[in-house]
Amino acid sequence: MGETILKMQGIQKYFSGVHALNGVNFELRAGEVHALMGENGAGKSTLIKVLCGIHKRDGGNVELFGKEVNFNNIAESQDAGISVIHQELNMMGHLTVAQNMFIGREARKGFFIDDKKMEADAQRLFDKMGVKINPATKLGDLTVGKQQMVEIAKAVSRECKLLVLDEPTAALTLPEVEELFKIMNDLRSKGIGMIYISHRMDEINRISDRVTVMRDGEYVGTVNTADVTKDDIVKMMVGRTIMGEQKEASAVAEGAPVVLDVKNLNAGKEVKNVSFQLRKGEILGFAGLMGAGRTEVARALYGADPRQTGEIYLNGKRAKIKTPEQAVKHGICYLSEDRKRFGLMLDKSVTQNSAIASVDDYITMGLINDSKMREVSAQTNAKLRTKTPSMEQLLKNLSGGNQQKVIIARWLMKNCDIFIFDEPTRGIDVGAKSEIYHLMEDLTKQGKSIIMISSELPEVLRMSDRIIVMCEGRKTGELDISEATQENIMQLATMREEN
Fold this sequence. Notes:
Layout: E1 4-15, E2 18-29, E3 33-37, H1 44-52, E4 59-64, E5 67-69, H2 74-79, E6 82-85, H3 97-101, E7 108-109, E8 112-113, H4 115-129, H5 144-157, E9 162-166, H6 174-189, E10 193-197, H7 201-207, E11 210-215, E12 218-224, H8 230-238, E13 258-267, E14 271-279, E15 283-287, H9 294-302, E16 309-314, E17 317-318, H10 324-329, E18 332-335, H11 339-342, H12 350-355, E19 363-364, E20 367-368, H13 370-383, H14 400-414, E21 418-422, H15 430-445, E22 449-453, H16 457-463, E23 466-471, E24 474-480, H17 486-493
Helix pairs in contact: 13-14
């Protein structure tokens, strides 16, 4: 690691009286990967927005390459060598890779844009980075991982000296994560400093040199990654130790009735003759690699996607479920893995997002009882410890983890009997994870049943009473938690169909 390229000291920020940042310090050196960690709502994103000029700071100072800076907008910070790659990629899928990389600074031949030159420049950059992407390909045809590589290449093409990566691996496959880390190590060798925001502890240990932890908008401390354990960092983040050992035995009562029986479910090419049962008070984990068909099973069961064949029985009676509305009427709710696309109304309030599925429950003689709806919404979100200045706050102003809690509040207000949680803790910090785990356990104690889809094997082993494993659209195995290990789950998850 080289000289200090960024120093933020005593940063203060207020929003409508809320003290979002209170005396936060952060430092980055050339050629360093410095992890920025904290629970959702700790202030990480706000600190980055202050750095980039999206928010004006209310106190403290920022030095970049030894000079004090005070950016008014993103363009000024980009001109100074700062680039940010957000968790939610903001690119144009209908344009080519090269067009996305050079948008706003296109190469020209006379009055016309020179696509060939941009493609050639992009190709040279990809070759240097060791990335195999055709610059003439439409961006929308690439995987999320490849799109992220394009964003990094775009930053490098701007001669970026400081790169911020916000949850860069949240939607990546393991090979794509390895490719990302290879590129990051190459950038590190070139002296580029990187701020790395992630909740995945194993990645932090692998890729970062130092870790700075924030809690409730305040600076907790900075440590060398090599000198601390995962538990040390977790304790800094949440102020307490969180236990998360594998469940040793099923918590389902002996003889618990079957509440859901799915027989021979087929949906397109992604779901092939899948059958399973769910018992009252059970957490049924679905494991498998990306593309295994787990989400597709959930969407077909919920009526979000059409199914070709298959029967669904609820409490022993055959149920007709062809739409999400019918599923909800039968007491089934679905927390989608793609919450931004299928779950959130970002320009609506916390109350509106919480109550949207149960508005009918608050209508009397054709009138909505707004005060009662707000009261129940507030009580439900309080149980989930949703951090929001008020129930009228727009959802887009909440952190990702708190947005997720609002969606859970939505289905708690609806009082469903069967919950489908698809990647329930994706992008959520360890503290919020623990709260959601306890919530799920409380639901089962109330007699609710849960289908949990997760790509994190420790989470599957921590929460499940029984595990269904899938590969290439097929159910390849079923394990009681007492016999489940990461090894035998992975063996089933890679059990391809023999031709």
